[in-house]
Amino acid sequence: METLDEGALLRRVARGDRRAFDELYRRTSPWLTARLRRRCADDDVVAEVLQDTYLAVWRSAGSQARHSGSGSAVGWLWTIAAHRLVDAFRARARAERVPAVRTFATVAPAAEEEALAGGMDADLEQALLALPPNLRRVLRAMVLDGLTTRETSVLLGMPEGTVKTYARRARIALREALS
């Protein structure tokens, strides 16, 4: 099986060939693990995403096998893994979200937090709607979904620096619109 490329292995996996699946895993899991670790430092999350990815490969190889050469098979693996990683980030954010209890305010909440917390007046709603869609998406991911800069970067498919820049621009635009 050493002479088969990943696309050929995937076609065999689609036919239920367990040895081909094992070989595909042996060849691609180190690369996929390294790529996931560049995006997530939590080894448990990486292991879970890796397992979910290869389970999805086993279950749906037939849908991809018809179109796959070696490169597209590896690209397909990465696409599955990236989606699973974003799902894991979202699940973690939901699980970690705890209702805030404020006993006193030492720092004024950020404008976007107030706006997205629920009690929006017409000016605030207009300020949010006036934001460009890319800024609104970053704000929604970071404030409503509670994602970190890195998680937002993965979710939206943009560099972390761009996420930071968009978040800063959104905050400035909201402050200016509301002052």
What would you say this structure looks like, in words?
This protein folds into 2 domains: 6-96, Rna Polymerase Sigma Factor, Chain: A; 111-178, Winged helix-like DNA-binding domain superfamily/Winged helix DNA-binding domain (Arc Repressor Mutant, subunit A). Helices cover 74% and strands 0% of the residues. It has helices at residues 6-14, 18-37, 43-65, 70-96, 111-116, 122-130, 133-144, 149-156, 160-178. The longest helix is centred in the middle third of the chain and has 27 residues, at 70-96. It is elongated and about 65 Å long. 27% of the residues are buried. The model is unreliable at 100-109 and 115-119 (pLDDT under 50).
In short:
The protein has 179 residues and is an all-alpha fold.
Throw out a few tags for this protein.
179 residues; mainly alpha; Rna Polymerase Sigma Factor, Chain: A; Arc Repressor Mutant, subunit A; 9 helices; RNA_pol_sigma70_r4_t2; sigma factor; RNA_pol_sigma-70-like
Question: Which percent bin holds the helix content?
Answer: over 70%
By CATH, the topology of the largest domain is Rna Polymerase Sigma Factor, Chain: A
Shape: elongated
Radius of gyration: 21 Å
Number of structural units classed as domains: 2
CATH architecture of the largest domain: Orthogonal Bundle
